[in-house]
Protein 1
Amino acid sequence: MKKIIFVTGDKGGVGKTFTSRLLETYLSKSDIIYKTFETDKTNSSFKRFSIANTDFVDLDKQGDADIIFESLVVNENLQINLVDCAARTMDKIIDWLNEVDISSLSNEFNISVEFYYVLGSDKDSLQILNDLIKKIDESDLPINLRLVKNYGRSDSYTLFDSSKLSNMCETKNIKTITLKPLLNRPNLTIDRHNLNFLQACEDENLSILDRQRVFTYVNQSIKSFEDIGVLNG
């Protein structure tokens, strides 16, 4: 089964693009054919760090998002479309999915839709997640929801872990990916030199040990993605 992966969270600063970059690194090392998109008009940070050629999708322009689905149909070799979503675009994506009747299309063309919701540590992030689950349930959209805890951006997820929302997610069998923090020094060097994670494992702007740190971090992250079955149908 082919799939579309939306990396969202609807808040700035939770690590959506960082998660997208790690996901793309995993896809690139998995020897599958994928395509990447971003929806941020003001800050093309995903394109800046992406491994593949990333296309921009304007969610405010009617029909512009269609390429996310149609490219999977037209290109029989393409397996996954990865979409890095800007803050405050989740409702627009859901509106588009409803407008094109993604439920029918998903069955007809055997294409699944997944939301990777990057959690924040505050109440706003939990409320947005709660609203998202409600919208999915009420619209009967065929969305496979996954949670991402990015400890590079949040030190603690106690508020979520102790909430009724956490119990609801467990009941619904919503899987969680845990991403450990990467040391700040190699992170800053990667940003300064516009490196993707694969380049950072070999780039001499990083020290030998920092290159090893990135290499180890990438492999740990890949293991986290493998554990929740990113490539499964």
Protein 2
Amino acid sequence: MQVRTPVETNRAPHPEHEPYWSFLLRLWYSSLFRPVIRLNARFPWGLKEFSRLYAVAAVYYVIGSVVPIIVIFGSVILALHVAPENVLNLVATADGHPNMNVVLASTVTSFLCGFGAELYYIERQLKKEGLSLWKLIGFNLDSLNGSWTEAVKRAVVALGICLLLQNLLDVFPLPQPSQSTAELASTLDGGALFGFFFLAAVMAPFFEEIIFRGFIFNAFRNVFSEGRIFKILGQSKRMADYAAIGFSSLLFAGAHMEPTAFFQLFVVGVVLAELYRRSGTLVAPMLLHAFNNIVATLIIVLSGKA
């Protein structure tokens, strides 16, 4: 007699045969409510120590930004007494406008020295605790098994979300962002345009992600995950992470000193921090930051040329 093997009726459907709507629903639920959190950074400071350290780091940034400008302008003033005609030809155009190559070079130098000084101070403080800043903030691809492809894919998806959210803000009666930077960028060409692009697409993503996500977000994440604040948040690690995302994004938006673009910058900060939290590597938000700035710069330049 032939014996039939019973058919399993509760087996999970193969992905190829899973209804499309079911797949989207599962993807939405897993992404929104139960995402995989790969970030595993724990800073050694509480709220008091972090506040003091960040205040000192901010002073390092201000000093590092201002000193190069003072040196550059002081040098120009001294040089005017020696060879005024040559100096004027260097720093100004024939119609009397500032030479944008000199302006951009000064800006890049100030930016580099400011964030460099701040980063130097933070790294030195972590070394005192026997920690490496670069390992602590995940400045590698270990969480993604060394895959650049995975980092790029996550950054591209997050860029789409970021642009969508920024466009949704147009529905609300918010002040329109200032166009001064766009107007400036649309007039640049040659070396000045390259300098602006380098600042926006390389330097800003690198330094700002280290400071605002690598340091500030992680420090807030640690502060909100213990003590009285943790109890207020219901002793929930997820709520502690969300609070850290919110506060670090507020600082990120405020640090740009563009009040009319505050909400747009806050949204960008939230997406960058959440991408960092989920990917576990600072490379992913750096890529997103670079992609976002590249898109914005290309739009500005192309619209200006048109």
Protein 3
Amino acid sequence: MLGLVTCILVTVIFVLLHEYEHAREMLKRGLRVREWGFGVPITSWPRLRLSIPWLLPNTPFYLNILPFMAYVKNSTRDSLKIQRWLPYSESSVIYGAGVWGSIFYPLVVLAVCELTMADYRIAGACAVMALVLLPLKKQFCRYGVPLLGLCLLALMAHASVFHPEAFKSNGGYLKLAADVYHYNLNFTKGVMMACTLSLCLGLMNTLPFLPLDGGRIIETSLEKIKAPRLLLALYRLAGMLIIFGLFVYDLITSTLQDFHWLFGK
């Protein structure tokens, strides 16, 4: 139980660090961050306001009731400035910084965890990758994120055609949670699982579909080259439909698998 709780809490921290990196890059470029926080930001519902000046000065942090996401909010004017007026070298860093954070911080934590378990090869590999990413943050955001997204998309397309069994699972989210619970994770294993989840989420975020970070980089690139408005609208619509369709498909298949697991025995 301790490991499962640890995994959830550390995953939340990594998700917040993802959004923190977005906000930090905005502030560096003189953009105003109205707020950031955790949970669905429904302003009409009660929520807790906190001040964390040592992280993001003059930016309130909100804890919301529905704990499903983290977010950063800025003004509409600043959003348009990122998309249309800032050069690609700057806007891509703002959008790609979250992916960088979702990969860099888990690698550092994984290196420490592997050291405590005396697995020096994996610890060394994680440390080297983190040390490479640290000074190359801007280059990773500008070129690495779009390239990773396209490579991941090509890999997924290849697997769906030639290896469809790779997408099959033995259960849904309830069975996964039960398996994790019965696995009896300790504290270190819980932290390592959270690192793995963050790395997977970071890689998935590179896919070139809105509203993912990889999609925002592609969108701002189309804005920079003065792409036709119709093309931009079609790209935004297609990205939203693809992500929404995948979410619904995953939700339905997971529910059906859990139903079969619970009642089909």
